[in-house]
Amino acid sequence: MAIDTQAQEQLLRHRRIWEQKPILRHVYNDEFFARLLTFRKPGGISVEVGAGPGFFKQFAPQILSTDLIWCPWLDAIADAQQLPFRAGSVTNVFGLDMLHHLATPMTFLSEVSRTLIPGGRLILVEPWITPFSYFIFRFLHQERCDLSETPWLSNEHRAIPEKRAFDGNQAIPYILFGPKHRSRTLSSLPDLKLLALEPFCLFAYLLSGGFKPLNLLPESLYAALSKFERATSPLWRRIAALRVLLVLEKNN
């Protein structure tokens, strides 16, 4: 088994920062993980793909955690673009910031459609493009933000650059499910319907510094800021949200 030592070291760095920054754990547990579980379908097998540093597994230990990169804190190795599950055998597939890292995201979505039971759900939290977030992702983030990609085209008709595990294009979720191309994406996935699309995540994550040592958000202010973010209008979220909750459900 080949081990990507560079990717493993980055995951270990994330785990060290996670332990050192309680404010980061607050944001993930309250804003990201809780949202993922809100749409969880009860019963059956639930799988997390692209589990990486294993934080969601800590929050919801009953969920089977998988990733392409071997790590001792995960349950299994699995390629999200070639899932090792029987057709119609999985109730929920979870993903956090993983879709935009895939070389062929439509392959993954087709695999999810194959493996889900009727009524099963794909539940994702991903970057989302808004006027505010585009500036952040395009100019202040280490990953690409390229709105010109064409993820629907078959592999032989699109250039897929060689990528490392942490390479990504943060615009991919918006390209696939934003208002311009959403119908095109869903027409390619006839067994899946869009159940929810909820932009969220305004300032708390940014002020926490994410997985960088910097933190501008005291724990004492987090609860108030989180309450404010949840009370913001849909219009404000369309302008400034950094993330989106995406829920796709397999037709019965």
Describe this structure in words.
It is a single chain. The chain is an alpha/beta fold and 252 residues long. It has a single domain, classed as Vaccinia Virus protein VP39 (Rossmann fold, 3-Layer(aba) Sandwich). Helices cover 38% and strands 18% of the residues. The chain has 10 helices and 7 strands. A 7-stranded mixed beta sheet has the order 3-2-1-4-5-7-6. α4 links the parallel β4 and β5. The longest helix has 17 residues. It is globular, with a radius of gyration of 17 Å. It starts with a helix and ends with a strand. The model has no long low-confidence stretch (mean pLDDT 93).
Descriptors:
single chain, 252 residues, alpha/beta, Rossmann fold, seven-stranded mixed β-sheet, 10 helices, 38% helix, 18% strand, globular
Please name the CATH architecture. Answer: 3-Layer(aba) Sandwich
Q: Give the strand order, joined by hyphens, for the main sheet.
A: 3-2-1-4-5-7-6
* Biggest sheet descriptor: 7 strands, mixed
Give the proportion of residues in helices: 25-40%
* CATH domain fold name: Rossmann fold
| Low-confidence runs of at least 5 consecutive residues | none
The total tally of domains equals: 1
Q: Return the structural class.
A: alpha/beta
The number of helices is: 10
CATH class: Alpha Beta
Task: Identify the CATH homologous superfamily.
Answer: Vaccinia Virus protein VP39
**Mean pLDDT across residues:** 93
Give the strand content. 15-25%
Radius of gyration, in angstroms, nearest whole number:
17 Å
Shape assignment: globular
**Total number of beta strands:** 7
User: What order do the SSEs take from the amino end to the carboxyl end, as H and E?
Assistant: HHEHEEEHEHHHEHHHE
Give the N-to-C terminal Cα separation.
38 Å
